[in-house]
Design goal:
By secondary structure, this protein is an alpha+beta fold. The chain has ten helices and 16 strands. The strands form two sheets. Strands 1, 2, 3, 4, 5, 6, 8, 9, 13 and 16 form a ten-stranded mixed β-sheet that branches. A six-stranded antiparallel β-sheet has the order 12-11-10-7-14-15, with helices on one face. It is globular, with a radius of gyration of 19 Å. The chain starts with a strand and ends with a strand.
Length: 339
């Protein structure tokens, strides 16, 4: 049985991820651990390899690559008992790594795998509400399911009452878990364009370029958002639902978000002029948009989203599901190695 499995995307970090993964494998092996390095070759490989590792009894699964690789690995291990995630950040954004405090330098990130501390952080879940007929969804429903697997109860959000899991124990289907921010509206389109990349820019600059490009055609949809904070109905520029504070490699969209408080921070931005959007984009680097009259920040454990017409949601920069959608937080739903 492997002590660990490293899942690496060889094209991440301009081709450096494979070298970093090999260094990590050598360091872990020299420390006396037994493990395997697996290299992906297509979309979906990282999730499948992670699922296979967990099924084989591996309890340390390490993602080496960008946010897309990490997203797949998390979806492969989510809800599995006693599995610890390791992260070797080699991508453009590395927003989850930043939230956990994992260094970008390979040597320091590898040292975290060897001598770091496992911590519990929150996990997000997003699914299409219309496809969940008969399924009683709740944050504690997911937690109870994990508790049964773990036989190690996780802390629950204050003042919540457990909800019974439906008899068929159905759960959301494909790639529904996320670790950073779920986007709806303008920033979803920005994420989609940024994911395609550009030969001129990389990292945060690529996201900023996509944000400007999107301004020329984006048409705000009418939405209904409902959470613990109440209800918002009307046209929407964007709604960012965050476990972590930032996306796009440094844009502080929900600057006060905490990764372990059992709550989402939700930033709702009502439609404004293109010039105002550009001004707000600049202030996102330090969270200065929070005081703008078109911006409101809320906290919630769940968020339901209805739009006209239906639109696609992204999370971790990856496509998730179409509206109507429900986003839920799983308190302490993921274990990760931190410095």
């Amino acid at each position: 049985m492997n002590d660990f499995v490293i899942i690496a995307n060889p094209i991440s970090g301009k081709g450096q991820a494979k070298n970093v993964a090999e260094q990590a494998h050598a360091a872990l092996t020299e420390s006396g651990k037994q493990g395997q390095l697996i290299v992906t070759s297509a979309s979906g490989d990282a999730k499948r390899f992670a699922q296979e590792a967990v099924a084989d009894g591996t309890r340390h699964v390490i993602a080496c690559g960008g946010d897309g690789t990490l997203h797949e690995v998390v979806n492969g291990i989510a809800m599995a008992p006693d599995v610890t995630l390791g992260v070797l950040p080699c991508g453009r954004g590395n927003d989850f790594a930043a939230a956990v405090g994992i260094p970008l330098k390979p040597e320091a990130a590898i040292a975290t795998l060897l001598s770091g501390t496992p911590i519990r952080v929150d996990l997000g879940c997003c699914y299409n509400s219309s496809q969940q007929d008969g399924y009683r969804s709740s944050v504690n429903g997911y937690q109870l399911k994990r508790d049964v697997l773990n036989e190690n109860p996780l802390p629950t959000t204050d003042n919540q009452q457990p909800t019974t899991i439906s008899s068929d124990n159905r759960q959301p289907t494909t790639d529904n878990y996320f670790t950073t921010i779920a986007t709806c509206g303008y920033d979803t389109e920005v994420s989609r364009r940024a994911a395609k990349g550009t030969p001129l820019f990389a990292g945060t600059a690529s996201y900023a370029y996509a944000a400007v490009e999107t301004l020329f055609y984006y048409d705000p949809p009418d939405v209904r958002l409902e959470g613990d904070f109440g209800t918002y109905e009307g046209p929407l520029l964007l709604a960012a639902t965050g476990i972590t504070s930032r996306y796009g490699g440094g844009f502080q969209i929900v600057p006060n978000a905490r990764i372990d408080d059992g709550l989402f921070d939700v930033c709702i931005v009502r439609p404004v002029s293109s010039l105002t959007v550009l001004r707000l984009l600049v202030t996102l680097f330090w969270g200065g948009h929070v005081g703008h009259p078109a911006v409101s920040i809320h906290q919630t454990r769940t968020l339901t989203i209805e739009t006209d017409p239906p639109i696609l949601l992204y999370a971790d920069g990856e496509p998730m599901c179409e509206t109507p959608a429900t986003i839920e937080i799983i308190k302490a739903g993921l274990t990760v190695m931190s410095p």
